[in-house]
Amino acid sequence: MAGTENSTPGLYFRAAAPEPQLETLRTDIAGFIGKTARGPLDRPVRIEGWRHYQDIFGGLTREADTAYSLRGYFENGGEVAYVLRLLAPAHAAAQATWVVGDIDPVSSQWVASAPAGGGFSFARYEIIASSPGTWANGMRVLFSYRLRGRNGLPQLDIEVHPVNEGVEYLAGLTPRDLETQVTERSRYIRLRGVSTFQPAPTGFSGPLSSQWNTLELRNGFEENPGLDEYIEASRIMAEQPEVALVAAPDMYRMPDPDVHPYRFLSVLTAHTDRSLDRQALVSLPSSVHSIQEARQWVRSRMLDMPDGMTRSLAAYHPWICVDDPLGGLIEPLRTIPAVGHVAGLISRLDRERGAHHTPANAVLFDCVDIGHGYDLPDKGVLVQNGINPVRCRRGKGLEVWGGRTLVDAAQFPEGLYLAHRRLIHRLVRAIRRVAEPLVFDNNGPALWLTLVRAMTTILLEAYRAGALKGGRPEQAFRVRCDESLNPEFDRSLGRVYCELQVAPAVPMEFITLRIAISRQGTLEVIGP
To answer: Which residue ranges does the record assign to the Tail sheath protein subtilisin-like domain (predicted)?
Structure first.
């Protein structure tokens, strides 16, 4: 306890989580943009696991899909995620007022019933929810005071009873510095002294103990974030070096859902494409049921994002049904976008096999059905249009059955496969790590040789992992950094160019088996 540490000499131990070390080479970390139950606003928070998410942002909420997607992300193997909570500018935190005791207006001293000996700095405090929104409406707070605590000094205990979350106990607080202690220890509330004057000291100590009436926080409100908030969030998330996958499960809840989500998606995809080391994931609207509607959706996105920018966007359809403990017996399932579950699958396969493996033909966990089914020919049409289907097979569960980006394969074949894009993202991050320390070195043959060696080491690792095709390394990649690439004019401007050529291994999407029956009546299966 804070009071004990300050008053009694001795040796004390305190458990503290280590500061997370940024690992910019990882490509398995996802960033989520959207509305959550509570938590800090407009800044990405690094989360390690579902329990950690609940501590910071609360649990599931009926008003948004982001929390359900985060739960699916971690259930499918995601380890680390960045979460950026959004609200519209019109929001407020729930509040209540705690009157510690009354002050005599003439003498400016505590009245006889007040805890005068406690050392309170203020006679009245505002209790404010730790973050804005409606989540804290109805939260109850109970204060208990003792003139002589375990350490012989005045102490205060606080019980916080949030709605639909566990009770929080703050025991052994020192009344003199309540605001700081509550800020450090409470997930749910903050205190702010609001007395117009500090109570003058008195000659009596007041009661030995006190317990105030339970207080209930009210008047918290929020509105769904709009286009401006989502665009700013996209810019902020693009600056996070660890994030390699970006999703916004609640983007279709924006005002004007026929226009604003697609303007945001264009900005998000532009940010991911410009960074060269991350991928945006999106689900088609839940209202898209027919193949014609899916085709039209793809054509519209290509018009919104020209010049092959859609290579940085992977689309999944249909939506999936997940268990919803908030729905009760009437609505036990909730239909949500599949992007959170898919991001968790990609994250897990990235760590198990590598970024160059196609995140497909794998089972999704924490989901029980799909929102809309397609027959086999229609699934083929979806894949040919760049949409990765989520299929449901009897006895097999839900599977991702596609590994393509949304790019036009006829115009930009090099950006077709998601595995190729993620391989490039991995290489870009590795190259940045080895090349950035060389900035400001002398631009000459020694620097060129260093770059060639570093790039060759990176590509050789990728080749040995099976990410590149070819019987020998020289067939899989080529690195060049010499005087022909770096003439005197470019060197005078402080530039150095290094050219890399790679041959990624192509995913096997179609397997053809030829079956022949001989005259003798034997069956032969001949490979492709």
So the answer is: 309-406
Rounded Cα gap, residues 400 and 391, in angstroms? 6
Bridging pattern class, strands 245-247 and 279-283:
parallel
CA distance 255 to 314: 24
Residue 73 contacts residue 336 (beta carbons within 8 Å):
no
Nearest to 388 by CA among 368, 362, 365: 362
**Interacting residues of 263 by C-beta distance below 8 A, sequence separation 6+:** 227, 231
Write the pLDDT tens digit of every residue in 164-175. Answer: 899 999 999 999
Whole-number pLDDT of residue 204 = 74
Confidence (pLDDT) at 103: 86
Element (H, E) at 84: strand 81-85
Q: What is the DSSP string of 319-339?
A: -EEEE-TTSTTT--EEEE-SH
393 or 319, higher pLDDT: 319
Secondary structure of 365-427 as H, E, C letters: CCCCEECCCCCHHHHHHHHHCCEEEEEEECCCEEEECCCECCCCCCCCHHHCEHHHHHHHHHH
pTM of the model: 0.88
Structure tokens at 105: 């207006």
The architecture of the domain spanning 30-88+223-414 is 3-Layer(aba) Sandwich (3.40)
Q: Is the pLDDT of residue 127 over 60?
A: yes
Report d(CA 67, CA 54) in Å as an integer: 9
Of the candidates 2, 85, 96, 100, the one whose C-alpha atom is nearest the C-alpha of residue 39 is: 85
How confident is the model over 256-273, as pLDDT tens digits?
999 999 999 999 999 999
Q: Where are the domains of the chain?
A: 30-88+223-414, 95-216, 439-502
CA distance 410 to 303: 15
| Cα–Cα distance for residue pair 123/117, rounded to 1 Å | 12
Q: Please say whether the beta carbons of 215 and 98 come within 8 A.
A: yes
Confidence tier at 301 by pLDDT (50, 70, 90): confident
What are the residues whose beta carbons fall under 8 Å from the beta carbon of 245, sequence distance 6 or more?
29, 30, 31, 278, 279, 280, 281, 343, 346, 347
From first CA to last CA, the distance across the chain in angstroms is: 72
Q: Which residues contact 479 (CB under 8 A, 6 or more apart)?
A: 452, 455, 456, 459, 498, 499, 500, 501
What 8-state DSSP symbol labels residue 110?
B
